[in-house]
Design a protein that fits this description.
This protein is mainly alpha-helical and about 90 residues long. The chain has helices at about 20-30, 35-40, 45-55, 60-70; strands spanning about 15-20, 60. It contains 4 helices and 2 strands. The longest helix is centred in the first third of the chain and has 10 residues, at about 20-30. The mean pLDDT is about 85.
Length: about 90
């Protein structure tokens, strides 16, 4: 299965992205991925993933963010953002 991840164009190369740790944990567990497995796939220490999930760290590089989206098979880049844009309200 080929998967394309679309990152926002306004992310500069040296920019950091703030992730929502709880969302990361829930999605990782739903995908059946262990912390150690995900960390190895991203080339980071497992403690880094644990820190992200518990909120003691919340910033990642664009490369790590793209890796999280790829490894967790997330198509919408907003799924892990700490400050995800609100959905437009639909008037009834």
């Amino acid at each position: 299965m080929t998967m394309f991840v679309v990152m926002p164009r306004e992310t500069p190369p040296n920019h950091v992205i703030e992730v929502h740790g709880y969302a990361l944990r829930v999605i990782r567990q739903a995908r059946g991925r262990a912390v150690t497995d995900l960390a190895a796939a991203l080339g980071v220490d497992p403690s880094y993933i644990r820190h992200l999930e518990n909120g003691s760290k919340f910033r990642v590089s664009p490369e790590v963010y793209a890796g999280l989206l790829r490894e967790l098979q997330i198509e919408d880049y907003r799924a892990l953002l700490a400050t995800a844009p609100l959905r437009d309200e639909v008037s009834a």
